[in-house]
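Section 3.1: Structural characterization of target chains.
Under the original work plan, the team committed to producing a structural model for every single-chain target entering the pipeline before any wet-lab resources were allocated. The record below documents one such target. The sequence was received from the expression subgroup and is listed exactly as submitted; it comprises 203 residues.
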Amino acid sequence: MTEGQKRAFDSLWQQYGVNFEALPLDLSSIFSRDVYRTLEIGFGAGTSFVETAKKYPNHDFLGIEVHEPGVGRCMLEASQQDLSNIKLICHDAVEVLRDQLPADSFDCINLFFPDPWHKKRHHKRRIVQAEFVTTLSSKLRSGGIFHVATDWPNYAEHIQNVFNQQQQLREHTGENPWRPATRFENRGVKLGHNIWEKVFVKQ
């Protein structure tokens, strides 16, 4: 981490951070209200995450990121924008989703450009698996959405196959919700990658 990111943990974690515990969070208490709530899994450096939170001040945003430098940078950006509708957890997303987030608590869950683990022997490390989808679905409110994007065709095929084999979420055929481009997305576009993006809705 940079010195600035380290200072962010010292000075801003109390404002933006949520420590990991294997106990369900009281999200209404953490945000001091109960409004449209979005979870973003793996927000990276947090630039697009902060941009979205700034665009929708009447919504609340919980972000999960395991890499401390990205969390530090995200806190700095949120502070610079004087945002009060963001909270962050620095921990493994699968454990947070499974053990810390209560059922029926989010209107939207975002997963943008996750690690593709493109080598075949590493495919089992991909976050999108059948068990993950079952857990994710339980955290969405009725009518809530899962918004996912990747620039790796093989991962796109994998995600589609996983969702074709489950019954909790149906594919949305309308226009996708607005989102800003991410750093990984821009890099993929420069490399000539096509963007695959889907939305799935909880029944």
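The radius of gyration is 16 Å.
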